[in-house]
Amino acid sequence: MAQKTTLLDLSPREATAAREIALRYGNRPDALLEILHDLQHQLGFIPEAALPALAKSLNLSRAEVHGVVTFYHDYRREPAGRHVIKVCRAEACQSMGANELVGMIERYLKVKLGQTTADGAITVEAAYCLGNCALSPAVMVDEKLVGRVDARKFEKIVAECRS
């Protein structure tokens, strides 16, 4: 299980990254979503300890930054595996077998949604519409959308992630 990051754990690299990204956006508070997205892209997640640095750079309260990070499900607060697989749980995908697919995924990878495999290779998350309803059930592997996923196709995806 991943450990929580604390203010004392924030490396100079992470603090510098948070400040530099905010500066690229002119320290504009209205760019907070983009700043958080870039920070997560660079670090792999949004460290809790980065929030005070961002708040100070953007002249926002820590609570305002924290509220945004916790409101939007795409912002990760814990490190993820090398690959992130999002499984659509919306109604169209459910009607085409997404619930059964999730059960198979959890058994196959030996993790629940929101967890990372023991080897650190794959984090599996729920998503609530990937916009690929015509090709249900759908998953997103990192940034790549995959449709009509069944057990065989999922096993192939995992093999590619682990290679």
From TrEMBL:
The protein, known as: NADH-quinone oxidoreductase subunit E
Pfam families named among the record's database cross-references: 2Fe-2S_thioredx (PF01257)
CDD domains reported for this sequence: TRX_Fd_NuoE_FDH_gamma
Gene3D superfamilies found in the cross-reference section: Glutaredoxin, NADH-quinone oxidoreductase subunit E
InterPro entries listed in its UniProt record: NADP_DH_HndA-like (IPR028431), NuoE-like (IPR002023), NuoE_N (IPR041921), Thioredoxin-like_sf (IPR036249)
Source organism: Aestuariivirga litoralis
Cofactor(s) this protein cannot do without: [2Fe-2S] cluster
Lineage summary: Bacteria, Pseudomonadati, Pseudomonadota, Alphaproteobacteria, Hyphomicrobiales
Catalytic activity: a quinone + NADH + 5 H(+)(in) = a quinol + NAD(+) + 4 H(+)(out)
This protein's UniProt keywords: 2Fe-2S, Iron, Iron-sulfur, Metal-binding
Residues at which [2Fe-2S] cluster binds: C88, C93, C129, C133
Textual note on the cofactor: Binds 1 [2Fe-2S] cluster.
Family listed: Belongs to the complex I 24 kDa subunit family.
Gene Ontology MF annotations: 2 iron, 2 sulfur cluster binding; metal ion binding; oxidoreductase activity
